[in-house]
Amino acid sequence: MSHLGLITLVVRDYDEAIAFYVDVLGFELLEDTVLDERKRWVTVRPRGARETALLLARAATPDQETRIGDQTGGRVGMFLYTDDFTRDHDRFTSAGVRFIRPPSHEPYGTVAVFEDLYGNRWDLLQPTTPPDAPTTTPPTHNSAKTPSS
C-alpha cells in the first residue's frame, strides 16, 4: 500500500508560514527541526489528518523565490476537506483569510476558494460524499487503447 506523505510548499519565511498554517488555519505543527543555519525541516498538517502533510520549504534560490505563491500557475493547488464547512469558513474569515470565490453548492459538495498568505489557491471543501467513501462515478479518463498503443 502506498500513500502521499508530504507535499512541498515553497515559502518566504519559516516562522511566518508556521504562524499562518498553525495559528490561522489551525493546522498542527508536526516537526520543526533546524538542519543548518539556513535550512529547517518544517511539517504541518490539518488536525486529524492521517497521512498527507505539508513540508514548508523556505526558498533558497532566486528561481525558487519566483515560485512562492504561484506553484500551480494560478490554479487551485490544495484541497482542504472539512466535515463542517460553515464552522471552518466562519473561523477562517474571522482570522482574516482572503476568500476569492464565495461559497457555492456544487454536485460534489460545498466549496469556496481562498488564498494562503502567499497567494496559493486552496479549496475549502465539504464533499457531498465523504472523501474515503468508495466512488460510484466512472473515471473521466479514456482507458481505451488508442490506435497507436
Describe the structure in brief.
The chain is built from 3 helices and 8 strands; from the N terminus they run βαβββαβαβββ.
What does this structure look like?
With 149 residues, this protein is α/β, with parallel strands linked by helices. The protein has 2 domains: 68 residues, 2,3-Dihydroxybiphenyl 1,2-Dioxygenase, domain 1; 65 residues, 2,3-Dihydroxybiphenyl 1,2-Dioxygenase, domain 1. It is built from 3 helices and 8 strands. A hairpin with a 7-residue loop joins strand 3 and strand 4. The C terminus is likely disordered.
Q: Give the number of DSSP strands.
A: 8
The strands making up the biggest β-sheet line up spatially as: 1-4-3-2
Q: Outline, from the CA principal axes?
A: globular
Q: Number of folding domains?
A: 2
Tell me about the largest β-sheet: 4 strands, mixed
Number of helices: 3
What is the chain-wise order of helices and strands? EHEEEHEHEEE
Task: Calculate the mean pLDDT score and round it.
Answer: 89
Strand content: 35-45%
Fraction of helical residues: 10-25%
SSE class:
alpha/beta
Q: Regions with pLDDT < 50 over 5+ consecutive residues?
A: 136-149
CATH architecture of the largest domain: Roll
CATH class of the largest domain reads: Alpha Beta
